[in-house]
Amino acid sequence: MAHPGNRKHLDCEEYRLDIYCGIDWAEGHHDIAIIDSAGELLAKRRITDDAAGYRDLMELLAEHGDTPLNPVPVAIETSQGLLVAALRAGTRSIYAVNPLSAARYRDRHGVSKKKSDPGDALVLANILRTDAHAHRPLPADSEQSRAITVLARAQQDAVWARQQTANQLRSVLRQFYPALLQAAAVWQNGLTRPEIRELLRIAPTPGTAARLSTARIEAALRRAGRSRGIAAQARRIKTILRGDHARQPQAVEDAMGQQAASLLLLLDAACQSVDQLSTAVEEAFLTHPDAQILLSFPGIGNQLGARLLAEIGDDRKRFADARSLKAYAGSAPITRASGKKKFVGRRFVKNDRLSTVGYMWALSALTGSPGARAHYQRRRAAGDWHAAAQRNLFNRLLGQLHHCLTTGTRFDEATAFTPPAANLAA
Predict the structure, then answer these.
(1) Which secondary-structure segment (H or E) carries 99?
(2) Beta-strand runs (E) in 49-129
(3) Which positions ≥6 away from 144 have C-beta within 8 Å?
(4) Nearest-5° angle of CA 14, CA 19, CA 22?
(5) Alpha-carbon dihedral 374, 375, 379, 381, rounded to 10 degrees
(6) Are the CB atoms for 269 and 231 separated by under 8 Å?
(7) SS3 state at 95
(8) Which helix (H) or strand (E) holds 343?
(9) How far is CA 171 from CA 128, 177, 182, 261, in A?
(10) Within a 10 A sphere around the Cβ of 423, how many other Cβ atoms?
């Protein structure tokens, strides 16, 4: 048999040595490094970030033994982009290595702190060669699940952007137009409500607002989509707008009115984006096979269910057990022990989006599930603060969700929250 160093000149069907590929990606180009199981560099190349570059990569991998049945594993510092999409075709294992982990591995290869793109690609390939068991490949989620992930995250980002813009507008209004904030106080979501945005559109300053008639206010409420209680709301708003409020000098007030009007345009666009993405998320989520299982849980609606599915995915092999899912979500506590010292606390390294969904889910479940409410109250009685009790409830709900998704069954209140033994004895 030929020496492994000459493997790249042999027919892949005659001789196959395990090889590994590392890719250091950038905006305009990517550096490739391919090594064998002994750590010998077999090939290195720089490709462009386009279809031609992706074809060059696939041809390079094929030259070194890549086949559809036995694809070469790849390590890269991202899980997104067209390059990753091209690599995900088929059954290839792709390892998205955290850049911080890659930097720590780089120190193993040299202490001079030198850094280069080809060198980083080689480091990534060596991570797979030596420690692939310590890293997880990207989950084999379906295309439908990945599409829901894109929409759900975009909708969540749009909600955050809408709130940020609303906060900026509120800060401006507090300085010269407190009457409008007072009028919006009775409604949930405040400035994002279409009624308030329509009022600000026709009356951008306190001076113009004080001259509004009841009829104009009623017309604005109708344009905003309100159909009930219009006359009563119009009288309430008119009373507030014509009340005794402090005012800025006229020139300053007019200037701040223009500032508020420009922020209103951004807020209108943000609200429209949220509405459009919310509709798209619901339509995509309801067609997924896991949707009905998720919706069977208390406190989960279409938007919350879509966000859960987006972060968990539908690859049943992604999480070996419920503990893995809980650790990924940050709901499971983490223990630090050394000698006689032991500390149990919450996790800070987690999927932040899934953790955010968890608090919303636990809060909603308190009103939709007697068992969840009893569990939360027991945790509070045991000394947990509100956030800790919510996190504990989320932890339990995640375990139940993992079971239901694995077995294909829906949530059952009696099975999920069995009464305490003392109640059963009574």
Answers:
(1) helix 99-109
(2) 74-76, 94-96
(3) 284, 287, 288, 314
(4) 150
(5) 20
(6) no
(7) strand
(8) strand 341-345
(9) 51, 10, 13, 13
(10) 9
Q: Position 282: which residue type? A: E
Evaluated on CA atoms 62, 64, 65, 66, the torsion sign reads negative
Region 156-168 average pLDDT = 96
Q: Report pLDDT digits (tens) over 54-95.
A: 999 999 999 998 888 889 999 999 998 899 999 988 889 999
The token duo for 235 is 């009288």
Rounded-to-integer distance, Cα 274 and Cα 188, Å:
16
Integer Cα distance of 145 and 166 in angstroms: 31
pTM given for the model: 0.84
**H-helix or E-strand containing 101?**
helix 99-109
How far apart CA 277 and CA 375 sit, in angstroms, is 35
Angle at 28 between CA 25 and CA 30, to 5 degrees: 30
CA–CA gap between residue 358 and residue 297 (Å, rounded): 13
Q: How far apart are CA 184 and CA 375, in angstroms?
A: 36
User: Considering only CA atoms, which of 254, 348, 364 is closest in space to residue 300?
Assistant: 364
- Angle CA(297)–CA(298)–CA(300) in degrees, nearest 5? 75
- The number of CA neighbours under 13 Å toward the Cβ of 80 is 5
**Residue 354: CB atoms within 10 Å:** 21
Which two tokens mark 77?
């510092």
